[in-house]
Amino acid sequence: MIGKEEICFNCFILVCLFFVVPMRYNDPKRIEVHGAFKNGSMLFLRPEVDSAYKIATERISKLQESNGASYGMTKFSLMPQDEFKNKYLRFRMSDFEGSQALVRQRREAHSFNVSGVPIKFDWREKGLVTSVKTQFQCGACWAFSTVGVLETMYAKKTGKLVDLSSQQVLDCAVGNFGCFGGDTCSALAWMSSNTTRIVPEEEYPLTFKMQRCKAHTKSDINIRVAKNFTCSNFVGSEEEIIKGVATHGPLAVAVDGLSWQDYLGGIIRYNCESHLNHAAEIVGYDLSGPIPYYIVKNSWGADFGIEGYLHIEIGKNLCGLAMRVSALDVLIL
Ligand SMILES: *[C@@H]1O[C@H](CO)[C@@H](O)[C@H](O)[C@H]1NC(C)=O
Ligand SMILES: *[C@@H]1O[C@H](CO)[C@@H](O)[C@H](O)[C@H]1NC(C)=O
Ligand SMILES: *[C@@H]1O[C@H](CO)[C@@H](O)[C@H](O)[C@H]1NC(C)=O
Ligand SMILES: *[C@@H]1O[C@H](CO)[C@@H](O)[C@H](O)[C@H]1NC(C)=O
Q1: pLDDT digits over 43-58, tens only?
Q2: Domains of the chain by range and CATH?
Q3: Shortest-distance Cα residue to atom 12 of ligand 2
Q4: How many helices (H) does the chain have, and how many strands (E)?
Q5: Do 230 and 280 meet the contact criterion of CB atoms below 8 Å apart?
Q6: Overall pTM > 0.85
Q7: InterPro entries, from UniProt (predicted)?
């Protein structure tokens, strides 16, 4: 028999499951650990969560950066690293229409020269960036990052900020693997070569599942990616990335997101490798402080990182972010 009190007790636990003592950060809304709850100043863990918690705290203690980013318990931290990688890191290189060959190598050593660009720049401040999306366990980072850039380029041209259909790209972009992964360059190759037009998300909603590509004929908004999109390696010449952001638009990038599992905020300066396994979008940068950084939009919800974003130090190809950088223009049909 379940009495009223017992039901309420259960409710209390459920609510508390999403609250835990922050390890370094003082913003409790960013700290969500499934299976852990706080009572007074004590942290309680369910037994099955206990070993995952130990593994996470060991991993996190190795990540801590003096004078860099903060790491701690995020909504992903109690997941074994392999499982996290499988579910959330699904960037996969493909070679649709020779998209590998599209990656131009720009390896010449450049001094860091960004004269002529603003000291900071953020496309969000212009009101041209859509909300942070949540990919859940569908590995469609590659679709979210390219469609995110497309949304801003469309808004820049028309003044209309519209969520465009990542699901359509997920379902239809030949040469990719839907929720099992994809490649930003190959997605753009499809978006620029296929006659299919990208429609608003409203007309082709997200299901986070792979579906048969739905042919769309009528829509008020018909968009295609222009043929001259770029796909560049700017390792050693990251000033090109800054110039691209300031003068052209946001950039879709492939990254290594493994250490992002435990990212809470601050500027990532170390502990980020470059085994490309995820995709994101650079929407701005800030060169005004002692540590210059990129502002990176992710697709793991607004409750991840800095309201869905990360800050990553400029100039070190951190997280492999300079290896596969795409700019694009939009054609309105
Ligand atoms: C929280 O702590 C108080 C005092 O120690 C105790 O009475 C109460 O049962 C605890 N609640 C939970 C949900 O453990
Ligand atoms: C930086 O670039 C500008 C033009 O883009 C050039 O005039 C200037 O000499 C460069 N500065 C350095 C230190 O290379
Ligand atoms: C365009 O994409 C659709 C959906 O994936 C596919 O069925 C079609 O064959 C493609 N057309 C061309 C010309 O590549
Ligand atoms: C594509 O071409 C247009 C027109 O020439 C140009 O304005 C734009 O910057 C180019 N886009 C890219 C990504 O190079």
Answers
A1: 555 556 678 888 988 9
A2: 4-78 (no CATH), 83-332 (3.90.70.10)
A3: 113
A4: 8, 15
A5: no
A6: no
A7: Papain-like_cys_pep_sf (IPR038765), Pept_cys_AS (IPR000169), Peptidase_C1A (IPR013128), Peptidase_C1A_C (IPR000668), Peptidase_C1A_papain-like (IPR039417)
Element spanning 313, H or E: strand 309-313
In this structure, are residues 190 and 229 in contact, taking their beta carbons and an 8 Å threshold? Answer: no
Each residue's pLDDT tens digit, 184-229: 999 999 999 998 899 999 999 999 998 999 986 677 888 999 998 9
Q: How far is the CA of 213 from the centre of ligand 4 (A)?
A: 29
Whether 247 lines ligand 2, by a CB cut-off of 6 Å, is no
Q: Tokens standing for 63? A: 């990540």
Residue-wise DSSP of 64-127? --TTS-EE---TTTTS-HHHHHHHH--B----GGGHHHHEEE--S------TTS-SEEEGGGGT
Q: Whose CA is nearest to atom 12 of ligand 1?
A: 39
Residue 115 Cα to ligand 2 midpoint, Å, equals 6
In degrees and rounded to multiples of 5, residue 14 shows phi and psi of: -60, -45
- Catalytically active residues are 141, 278, 298
Pocket of ligand 3 contains residue 172 by CB under 6 Å: yes
